[in-house]
UniProtKB/TrEMBL annotation:
Xref: SUPFAM superfamilies: Invertebrate chitin-binding proteins
Protein's name according to its UniProt entry: Chitin-binding type-2 domain-containing protein
Listed InterPro entries: Chitin-bd_dom, Chitin-bd_dom_sf, Chitin_bind-dev_reg
A family per Pfam: CBM_14
Keywords tagged on the record: Chitin-binding, Disulfide bond, Glycoprotein, Repeat, Signal
Superkingdom as given in the UniProt entry: Eukaryota
Residues annotated as domain Chitin-binding type-2: 77-135, 145-201, 207-271
Length: 287
């Protein structure tokens, strides 16, 4: 299993050429997410946005489809409209006809993908959220592996709302949204955790309760509060909802300026990074 820490954006530019018995199929490599190291930093000069747009690219991989040998329950003959092309099955969204020199071969997309019929000259299986199947509602039964309800797709973790998995041929790559965010399966992005119904809100905020906003001596629509035990962490309260944040590596939260600062400038946090000074820590992060 491949493992990563903080969710970024899919790169969909890496292409392979895979040969089959009859022709060559353009296949895209598994989606890769790009990451920024360390927890999120926060600039108190501007209010945080409602969500972080770390979204998978809508153009999703073409993968080698398997040919169906022999007859299958709802499979019949197909008359190719043209000598070469790829055409949707009348009932099934994950099956299609490949016409080669006027001869039709029934194929099935990888488990979890469906046939994209937007271009009849292009053989393309894609994620279901990017394809309108219309009345083609039939699908192959799921083939599952650990963390992958189907062999291909992006799936939320069943117990931790911050974690999700990108599955490629049954291999699950684990990703985790930054602190304060959770994976929204509908939008396929990391959003504020309190906007995701399956999240336990008390768990998301570590039990921190926002003080009455009228008592907070801070202007604006949100307030910032130090973590009770960790110098690097702090909370942003928006409409009485606590959202955890973390300063970048080498810095800690300054309760006087309400910004991330060097440890030597924050009483009680001078030794947060042990004997390393903040410059050494930042240098280690860059290396």
């Amino acid at each position: 299993m491949m493992d990563s820490s903080t969710f970024g954006a899919i790169s969909d530019t890496n292409l392979d050429i895979v040969s089959t018995q009859s022709h060559t199929v353009l296949c895209q490599r598994p989606p890769q997410f790009q990451f920024q190291p360390g927890p999120q930093s926060f600039s108190p000069q501007s209010a945080p946005s409602s969500q972080q747009q770390f979204a998978p690219a809508p153009a999703v991989p073409s993968v080698p489809a398997r040919s169906n040998s022999g007859s299958s329950g709802f499979v019949g003959s197909f008359n190719c409209p043209d000598d070469f092309g790829f055409y949707p099955h009348v009932k099934s969204c994950d099956k299609y006809w490949a016409c080669d020199n006027g001869t039709a071969t029934l194929k099935t997309c990888g488990n979890g993908l469906v046939f994209d019929d937007s271009d009849m000259k292009r053989e393309n299986c894609a994620y279901p959220f990017s394809v309108d199947c219309g009345d083609r509602s039939d699908l192959e039964p799921p083939i599952s592996t650990p963390h992958c309800p189907r062999l291909y797709g992006i799936f939320p973790d069943t117990t931790n709302c911050r974690i999700f998995y990108s599955c490629w041929n049954g291999e699950a790559s684990r990703y985790e949204c930054p602190p304060g965010l959770a994976y929204d399966d509908n939008q396929r992005v990391c959003v504020w955790a309190d906007h995701v119904e399956r999240c336990d809100q008390s768990e998301v905020s570590d039990g921190f309760v926002c003080p009455d906003q009228t008592e907070a001596d801070q202007p604006g629509h949100y307030t910032r509060h130090a973590h009770p035990t960790d110098c690097r962490k702090f909370y942003v309260c928006i409409e009485s909802v606590a959202r955890p944040y973390g300063c970048s590596l080498g810095t800690v939260f300054n309760v006087d300026t309400l910004q991330c600062d060097d440890p030597e400038n924050v009483p009680g946090c001078e030794k947060y990074y042990g004997d390393l000074d903040s410059k050494q820590v930042k240098k280690l992060q860059r290396s």
